[in-house]
Structures are given as structure tokens and as C-alpha cells.
Amino acid sequence: MKPFTVNISQTVLDDLKNRIQNTRWPGEAEGSGWHFGTSEKYLKELADYWMDRYDWKKYEQQLNQYPQYMVEIDGIQIHFQHIKGKSSNSKPLLLTHGWPDSYYRFHKIIPLLTEGEQSFDLIIPSIPGFGFSDKTAVSSEDVAGLWRKLMTEILGYKTFFAAGGDVGMGVTKALASKDPDVVAAVHFTDLGYPMGQEDPNSMTEEEQQFAQFVQQWWYSEGAYAMVHSTKPQSLAYALNDSPIGLASWIISFGNAGAPPELIETAFGGKDELLTNIMIYWITQTIGSSMRMYKADAIAQWGGSQPLQKSNVPAGVVVLPREAQFPREWAERFVNVVRFNKLDKGGHFAALEIPQAFADELKSFFYSLK
Q1: pLDDT tens, residue by residue, 65-103
Q2: What is the CATH number of the domain that holds 8?
Q3: How many CB atoms lie within 10 A of CB 49?
């Protein structure tokens, strides 16, 4: 386990600026706005801000504010933050990010969860294929195996809590299912979606309504996941070569969960949005991050056994700009002991509503005996 510091050379930053300046803009249909994907008008304004006002070095210092490490597990270099709570009773909490974000998803809640009597030791890793970890894409279940070794063998925790959403949900769910001896409790912001394989007769009316919503959403907004699961390499060449292309693809996903006027808010703000994009750019991990979808698809459709329902206590929160799944859907997969709905927030709740999200985690984990 070796200390790690983010330190990006000026050469990389100068190259980025040149690429933004030399973007070949495709044009857009008159009056199309956001209906065809990311708005070119908005993206040009963001590009100007990115070049002239955004200060990467400021956010690099922010990333280096907390202890970071690199460690090799099963031949894969894993990057992670490890921040000790200030209470003598701090509880270990593993936080797993998703796509198209990074370990930066949680930076706003670090001080909120490490101070006071109800505090945590936070372990925030970069999934393999993301950020500063190796550019090796593995399935969610395999990531869960790496996380168990990180928590128990490397850091020495006998038991721990875990939380995640999006891709992090799949990892956390696998941990709860496969490692109930070390995972004391888990928390989720989503629990997957009906994929048409379910028996309709086994679904409640609320679950069927949820399935209909998801089907409509999939047809209108799910193109990114289908591409990632089938042809991630074909898309990777373009996104790894063009910072504007990379930004457009990531913002297009954010737009799926927020109206245009809330795009930046959904990521926590303009600078937070760009910092997240920058982490993909400087590490050149957009291709490997998308390949994780392919790894999960191969695992799912390749005959692997589905995860068993976990008996580990689970807290679940439903956010207003996320798919409104009912409690019965969550109970298919985990042992729900807390099911709560918040009145604000979306996919990146830890960035958008950090205080409310931190309070939710504290309320759940510290309510357990």
C-alpha cells in the first residue's frame, strides 16, 4: 500500500486546451435544443468556460486534500481514499461510485461523514477501469471480490458497511449477497431495473407500473448502456481523442435524469461537472469504464448464476429525479429495513444534495443495533 498524489503535467493540460480550441463542431438542427442529444449551444459555452476559467490545479489540490493510496490486489492496481473518522467510535464505510462519475462523487460528503459522534472511516476506491485504478474492466461481482480483500486483508477491518448507486449498486449488492460474514449493512440509491425476464404474474401493480416506465425510458434514454454493453471499443476511439466528445457523452447521460437547466446542478455544479470529466480525460479511462458494461453483460448472459437475495440489513432511498421503484422491487434483492424517499436530488445525490445524503447514511447505519 503506497501513498498516491494526483499530479498532472502542464503538457497534458496544454494538449487539452489545444484540442478544445481545434474542435470540429458538427452543427445542430435549428431549434433542436436538447432533443437530439447534448445541445451544441450549451457545449460551446461550457468549452469557453473550460478553457478560460476552469482551474484544474485548484481541483487537483482538492483531490489531494485527503489521504490516497495505491495497492495491488489480484494483479490489479487499485486507487482508493482512506479517511479516518474523528470519533473514537467511527464505523468503516465503503463507498462505491458509478458511471459516468468517479470517486470524486463523494468528495462533498467526506467532511460530513468523518466529523461528530456519528462518524465513519471512509474507504472510497476507484473501480478498476475508472480514474487512477488500472485500466482493467471486470464485472461487478469481481469488483466485489476485490473490495472484500481491500477491506479485510489490506485494511484489516473485520466487518464494514457499504453503500453505492448505479454501477456501485451492482458491486454493493454483490458484496451483500456473497460476503454477509463481513458486510454488516448496505445502502442503495437504486436496485436495478426490470429487463423483461420477470414473470408479470409475480409482480405487484406498482412493480408493473415501474416496469412500464423503465421500458419507455430505455427506448428514449438507454442508448448509452446498449452501446457500452455491445460496442464499447468502437465508441472509445472518439471519446478518448476528443475532450468535447467526451464531455458531450457524459453530459448526455446527465441530461437523461435532469432538465437542461439542472444539468450542472445534477453534477454538483459546473466546476464539479468539469472535474469529473477531467478525471476521465487525464487518466484515459473512458474506454475501460465503458467496457465494464460489457463485462457485466457477458457475466449476466453467459450463464453465471444470479445473485441470491441478501439477508444483510439494507437501507434504500428513492430520489425524485430517479426511477421511482416501489419497495416491493427492492425487497426482491435485499433485506430492506429502511425505505425512504427524499424530496430533492437525482442520480448524483452525494454531489447535488450532500447534507441530505450524508444525513440519510448516518440515520440508517447508526440506527442499526
Answers
A1: 999 999 999 999 999 999 999 999 999 999 999 999 999
A2: 3.40.50.1820
A3: 13
Element (H, E) at 224: helix 223-230
What gap in Å lies between CA 78 and CA 37, rounded to an integer? 34
Query: Cis ω on the peptide bond leading into residue 100 (within 30° of 0)?
Result: yes
Exposure string of 23-42, with b = 16+ CB inside 10 Å and e = fewer, is: eeeeebeeeeeeeeebbbeb
Q: In the structure grid, which three cell numbers stand for residue 318, read together?
A: 428513492
The pLDDT score that the predictor gives to residue 124 is 98
* Residue 306 binned pLDDT confidence (cut-offs 50, 70, 90): confident
3-state DSSP helix/strand/coil percent for the chain, to nearest 5?
A: 50, 15, 35
List of residues 6+ apart from 304 with CB closer than 8 A? 141
- Residue 175: pLDDT band by 50, 70, 90 thresholds? very high
**Which residue range is the domain that position 146 belongs to?**
2-365
Q: How far apart are CA 31 and CA 239, in angstroms?
A: 26
CB 90 within 8 A of CB 119: yes
How much is the pLDDT for 255? 65
Q: Which residues pair with 59 in a beta bridge?
A: none
112-158 residue pLDDT tens: 999 999 999 999 999 999 999 999 999 999 999 999 999 999 999 99
The answer to whether residues 138 and 145 touch, using CB atoms and an 8 Å cutoff, is: no
From the number of C-beta atoms within 10 Å of its C-beta (0-12, 13-18, 19+), residue 181 rates as exposed
Domain count for the chain: 1
